[in-house]
Amino acid sequence: MAGRRQGGVTMHDVAAIAGVSIKTVSNVINGYPYIRPETKERVEAAIEQLGYRVNITARNLRQGRTGMIGLAVPELSLPYFAELADSVIRAAEPHGVVVLIEQTNAIRERELEVLTSARRHLTDGLIFSPLALGAEDRERFVVDYPMVLLGERIFHGPADHVTMSNVEAARAATRHLVESGRTRIAVIGAHEGETIGTAALRVQGYRQALEDAGLPFDPALLAEAGAWHRSTGAAAMHRLLDAGTEIDAVFGLNDALALGALRALHARGVAVPEDVAVLGFDDVDDAAYASPPLTSVAPGREQIARTAVELLLARVAGTAEGEPVEVYADFELVVRESTAGVHAPARA
After folding, report:
1. In 108-254, which residue ranges form alpha helices assigned H by DSSP?
2. How many CA atoms lie within 13 A of 288 on its CB side?
3. How many domains does the chain have?
4. Radius of gyration, CA atoms only, the chain
5. Better-predicted residue by pLDDT, 317 or 204
6. Domain range enclosing 238
7. 209 and 288 share a domain?
C-alpha cells in the first residue's frame, strides 16, 4: 500500500516534504511521463533527503511484473557477448531489474525455444541477439511480450532493434589501414554466400573503403572462418600465409579472429605492424593487452546495452507507443600499436 514504511520512511512522508499528493509521489517513482519537471525535482529531492527506498517487490506485484528481464545471446565464451551481458546487467540495475541470461549457441532450435519457452513467464520482456534465425523467420518474432532485438539478422522487424553501424565502422577501419599505407588488406572471418549478417555487412564496408581509395578488390584476400574464435582466426591466417598471398594488413571481423591472426603471425616470424598491420572489431578488454596492443573498432557496447534496456522497460511500462524503432549505436576506432606502432595515439 502507498503508506507502507520503507526503512522507517513512508511515501506519505515524501509527499509531505515535497508538498504534493501521495499519488504524485507514486507517479514519479513509477516513471509516469506527464509530470511537470519542477514537481518531479521536488519529489526526487524529498526522496533523497529522507532516504526513502521503494519496495520493488511489492511494486512489481501490484503492476503484475516480475522485475526480471531476459537476455539471450549466442555464446558467452566469446568476449564480446560476455562483456555485453555485463553491460546489460549494469544498465538494468538502476531500474531495480534483474537480468536472466540464456545462451543459445546459435542453434536454431534453441533460439526458437527462447521465443516460446515457458521461462518467458518469469520475465517481463526479452533482449534477444539471434544468429541462427533470420529474415525468413520474421513472423516468429511477433510475440505477446515486450522484446528488443540485437544484431544483424532481423531488420525492419516487429520489435525494437538496437544494432551496430557495421558498414560505416568497417569502412572507417579499412580506411585507417589504407591511410597508413596498406594496400593488400586481408579480411579474416568472411562467410561465403552471406548477404545478411555481421560478416556480410563488415565486408561491405571493407569493399567500400577500397573503392573510395581506388584499390582493386581481390577475392583471394577474403579468408573464410565459420565460428569467430581465436582458433579459427589463427587457422585462417595460416592458410593465407601457406598460400603465399601477398598481404600487408589483416582486418579481423571481430577481436577473437584478429587475436588468433596475431598469434599465427608471431608463430611465423612476421613482424606486427612493421610487416603486417592487424586490426579487429569489438574492442573487448583483451584487445588492449595483446602483444602488440590491438587496434579495434569500439562499436558502442555500453550504448547498445543502455538503449536496449531503456527501450524494453518503456514497452514493459506501456510508456512507449507506436511502431518499432531501429537504433544504430555510435562507433569509435581505437588506434593501438598493432597498426600504428609504438607512437599510436590513444584514440582516433
Report:
1. 108-116, 166-179, 198-213, 230-242
2. 9
3. 3
4. 24
5. 204
6. 166-299
7. yes
Q: Residue written as cell 512507449?
A: 320
259 by DSSP, 3-state: which?
Answer: helix
In terms of domains, do 269 and 187 share one?
yes
Q: In whole angstroms, how far apart are CA 155 and each of 134, 193, 298, 308?
A: 9, 19, 22, 15
Full-model pTM: 0.78
**Cβ atoms 236, 278 nearer than 8 A:** no
> Are 237 and 141 part of one and the same domain?
no
Q: What is the DSSP letter of 184?
A: -
Nearest to 146, CA basis, from 329, 344, 340, 320: 320
All cell numbers assigned to 200: 556480410
Cβ–Cβ under 8 Å, residues 154 and 321: no
Residue 40: φ, ψ to 5°: -60, -40
Other C-beta atoms closer than 10 Å to the C-beta of 136 total 9
Q: What is the mean pLDDT of the chain?
A: 89
Same-domain pairing of 73 and 153: yes
Q: How does pLDDT run across 176-203, given as a tens digit for each residue? A: 999 999 999 999 999 988 877 899 999 9
CA angle at 316 for the pair 313 and 319, rounded to the nearest 5°: 80
Grid coordinates representing 241 are 600465409
**Residue type at 256 in one-letter notation:** A
CA pair distance 99, 154, nearest whole angstrom: 23
CA atoms within 13 A on the CB side of 275: 9
291 and 170 part of one domain? yes
- Whole-angstrom distance, CA of residue 208 vs CA of residue 149: 27
pLDDT tens digit sequence for 35-87: 888 998 999 899 888 888 765 545 554 555 788 999 999 999 999 999 999 99
Contact 267, 306 (CB under 8 A): no
CB 234 within 8 Å of CB 261: yes
Same structural domain, 76 and 25: no
